[in-house]
Amino acid sequence: MSLLDSHTPHRRKGLLGRRPAMHLGEDILLARHGSRIDRISIDRRNHRTVAVLNDGSVDSAPNRLVAVPVTPLERFTQQVRDMRETASPLTKEDRRVLFWFTLGWIVVSVLFVVGVVALSSITGPQTFAQSAAFFPTY
Q1: What is the pLDDT of residues 56-65, one digit of tens each?
Q2: What is the pLDDT of residues 97-110, one digit of tens each?
Q3: Computed from CA positions of residues 87, 89, 93, 94, in that sequence, does the dihedral angle turn out positive or negative?
């Protein structure tokens, strides 16, 4: 049975009866092992093609010629997954302390902004004009 035979289950026909394009990993594995390949499957998550040989051994090859850099969204998703699975270097106690410091910083910032707005509404524009005259950098 040939790998390119139309009865091979892993080589289904696409739309309009055409075969889908061959993955780079399939081409590499065919060059390496030829007729010794029993089954080929595509690992889409890891972008690899996996082949099971006649003797039961397994070989794989990448489907990409050049490694694609990880996008920021993929990196963020991986970090969230690591935090959920506690594989992150941050422990739960560290995250709790970081949360409280962040919350405290937000409260102090809001109080500062409210104080500046209240001070500016109480004093009026004349006081700001006089204080601007005293600072040469204005």
Answers
A1: 899 999 888 8
A2: 999 999 999 999 99
A3: negative
For residues 48 and 60, the answer to whether their CB atoms sit within 8 Å is yes
Angle at Cα 67 formed by Cα 59 and Cα 83, nearest 5°?
90
46 within 8 A of 38, measured Cβ to Cβ: no
Beta carbons within 10 angstroms of residue 51's beta carbon: 23
96, amino acid identity: R
Burial group, residue 3, by CB count within 10 angstroms (0-12, 13-18, 19+): middle
Please determine, for residue 86, whether its predicted confidence score (pLDDT) is greater than 80: no
Edge-to-edge order in the sheet of strand 48-53: 37-43, 48-53, 58-62
Percent of the chain past pLDDT 90, that is, above it, reads 30
